[in-house]
Amino acid sequence: MNKEGGGFEFDNSFARTMEGFYIRAKAAKFPAPKIVLFNGPLARQLGLDAKNLNTPEGAELLCGNVMPEGADPLSQAYAGHQFGGFSPRLGDGRAMLLGEIIDTSGQRQDLQLKGSGRTEFSRGGDGKAALGPVLREYIMGEAMHNLGIATTRALAAVTTGESIEREGAKQGAVLVRVAASHLRVGTFQYFAARGDVEKVRQLADYAIERHYPELKDANNKYFEFLRALIKRQLSLVAKWIEVGFVHGVMNTDNMSISGETIDYGPCAFIDAYNPGAVFSSIDQNGRYGFGNQPVMAQWNLARFAETLLGVIEPGGPEKAVEAASALINQIPEQYTGIWLRGMRAKIGLDTEEENDIDLINSMLAIMENSQVDYTRFFRFLAFSAAGDDTALRKLFAQDAAIDNWLEKWRARTKKEALEGAARAEKMNKVNPVYIARNHLVENCLSAAESGDFSKTDKLLTALSTPYKSRMGFELYEQPAPKDFGPYKTFCGT
Ligand code: AMP
Ligand code: MG
């Protein structure tokens, strides 16, 4: 396929208007690119020629061997706090933005290659990606998207025909990633750390225009921008918690300005409910453990607020510190409110009562104590809503605490008009049957190493309608077999 193929129509606002925020990049040449996963629905949403792209010729375009017409490949500059320590210069060390496409719903989307070779930001790295992490990111992005959680997505995974060194030889791959943008908290930090207030202002204006256009003419718009980003991020993290997702590496360079889940590295879903769950091999202190994610979101948002202090008006820096601190300090309360709304829906409550938080917290404590599978609990609770406790009761073996809790929960639901079957149906719309369970993802990754993508395809099918039970997918509802053992994920490098 030549560079005109594929139906790409780029409109590269970042390259055009944000000089100084990036360095142009050149993709590596790969010996034998092959598309192993292709996201047809996403391709169509982007207005691309899906049929012709998902071909051996299309692989040349999707790995960067042939630059599609209109692409303007560049690597973005960003800094970031990694596990609390500040690195003033990270940037796209193994990624390049090809450009932006206005999708069929009018939304501007970044198209980025990840793993496409060295850039000006690569430092000691090879700029490449291994197949395993690329697949994990593809699967997780689809899982989250179909769960209704804001996320970047993969258009394709392409093996490169190259072998790369990652504690042994691994197959190389490129992920073609689609994002509302790749602006990060770390992008702001890069310029703020250099004291470049004008660049911070320019970046904020660009981000507002692209992601918060309703604020364009607001009074104190940079302050409102901070407020709006806080709200989006808290809503996002609450959703992670509600489905049992652990991002695993919430560094400030992995927190997006658009409010999407980004940079899937050592991420995982919890099985048994455990607020202390940590899966990442590099997270020794549990900084980014499951239950600590709201705390880390606040920490990151505080770092973001600091980058805006020079531009927040009026009243100058002193007033800005006061106002921004007030916003940051109320985050725990704001988060609890957002989370509570989601949890009420998960247990089938329609109305709000003050004691609901105790009902929910006691449920979580019982679940933790009995190591009950988090996802199944809520699906089985829907059976209870419809009048049958058998399934839920079985999850708890001898533990009688659940009986007591069920009694309280029933009394609470009786205060609402909704009848049982209707409540169950509502609950099933917010409580997934299928999540990207760790053992299933691992099975997909190891089969894919030997060229078998059928497991991945099947898992993606289950994940495409996560709230609906499917015939023939019963095993996908089950937690990991007992011998699966303690799960560790490795960073996506
Ligand atoms: P990540 O762990 O993907 O969030 O990346 C953290 C930083 O390390 C970013 O600046 C990446 O661009 C960079 N990086 C990660 N892997 C590589 C690699 N293989 N080659 C060059 N840079 C990398
Ligand atoms: Mg990253």
Q: How much helical structure, as a percent, in the residues?
A: 40-55%
- The radius of gyration computed from the alpha-carbon positions, rounded to a whole number of angstroms, is 23 Å
User: What is the distance, rounded to the nearest whole angstrom, between the alpha carbons of the first and last residues?
Assistant: 30 Å
- Number of discrete helical segments: 18
Secondary-structure element series: HEEHHHEEEEEEHEEHHHEEHHHHHHHHHH
Assign the structural class, choosing from mainly alpha, mainly beta, alpha/beta, alpha+beta, or little secondary structure: alpha+beta
Short characterization:
The chain has 493 residues and is of the alpha+beta class. It contains 18 helices and 12 strands. A hairpin with a 3-residue loop joins strand 9 (153-165) and strand 10.
